[in-house]
Amino acid sequence: MLFAQPPLIETMVFAELPSQYRTVRDDEWCRGQPGARSHPVIEGPAFDRDGNFYFVEIPSGRIFRKTPVGDVALVAEYDGWPNGLKFHSDGRIFIADYKHGIMELDPVNGAVKPYLVRANLERFKAVNDLFFADNGDLYFTDQGLTGLQDPSGRVFRVRADGHVSCLVDNLPSPNGLVMNRDGSALYVAVTRANAVWRVPFLGDGSATKVGNFIQLSGGGGPDGLALTQDGGLVVAHVGLGTVWIFDEVGRPIAEVRSSKGLMTTNIAFGGDDMRSLFITEAESGTILIARTAVAGARMYSHMS
């Protein structure tokens, strides 16, 4: 980014991972990461229609919920590595599970069941994050251990009728993703390229003229993405302890800086006016909150 330093926004602590869950149940996922260290890694922030805040803890297969007036409580613990979490417009909870694929969670009994574990008979590398378009189509990234040494990460789409297709298959570590306001393009965080790519669509829904939309520097690269109400893009920059807010054409308009660690993994807008930005900070096991001048796009605007 060759722009002047944008205005700085500070963060406060909203919630923390409870002390009894700060020991990793199984550190296999941790051992497989560069600079392996056994510790909880929180991700996947999302709000349901009642204002309950959900997030995941990857290595131990745990999913948590914080009510608007309550403490953080465990919803589910299972044999998996939940990496991303999103709500369908009908209220169902979907998980991008790094070990298994796309899973579905019942928040009442904590049961997790497979939704999509293969595409055309082929297993995924290891899925990372997911996003629902207004028409019900599901988009998700298949990251695995891809990077500049192996730029073969993929972006998939699952149509509302169940048809599965691979849109892009040459990404060095695809991560968070979100669609622009009119549904004409997808933004994808490409972590190992330290960039956000834009994936435009032709009329038939195929991808074309994929390009580099935002080039970052430092840290580990972009992780989670969110869209603002006016079409801007919000990028969690893991390893830099920063969340960048860009306008619709890619100019930085604010920097939200972590008051805890540097591992700002993902983001979600919430609050009555959608101007509260919630950030998962994996290093400290903390959920941060910041007040922003821009409002986030509402997740359920297409519901009747």
Short précis:
With 304 residues, the chain is mainly β.
Can you describe this structure?
The chain has one domain: Neuraminidase. The protein has 1 helix and 27 strands. It is 1% helix and 48% strand. Strand 9 and strand 10 form a beta hairpin. The chain starts with 7 loop residues before the first strand and ends in a 13-residue tail after the last strand.
Layout of strands and helices, then pairs:
Elements: E1 8-10, E2 12-16, H1 28-31, E3 42-47, E4 53-57, E5 62-66, E6 72-77, E7 82-87, E8 93-97, E9 101-105, E10 112-116, E11 118-119, E12 122-123, E13 127-132, E14 138-142, E15 153-158, E16 164-171, E17 174-179, E18 185-190, E19 195-200, E20 211-215, E21 221-227, E22 233-238, E23 242-246, E24 252-257, E25 264-270, E26 276-281, E27 286-291
Parallel strand pairs: 1-24
Antiparallel strand pairs: 2-27, 3-4, 4-5, 5-6, 7-8, 8-9, 9-10, 11-12, 13-14, 14-15, 15-16, 17-18, 18-19, 19-20, 21-22, 22-23, 23-24, 25-26, 26-27
N→C terminal distance = 40 Å
Strand order in space, largest sheet: 1-24-23-22-21
Total strand segments: 27
* Form type: globular
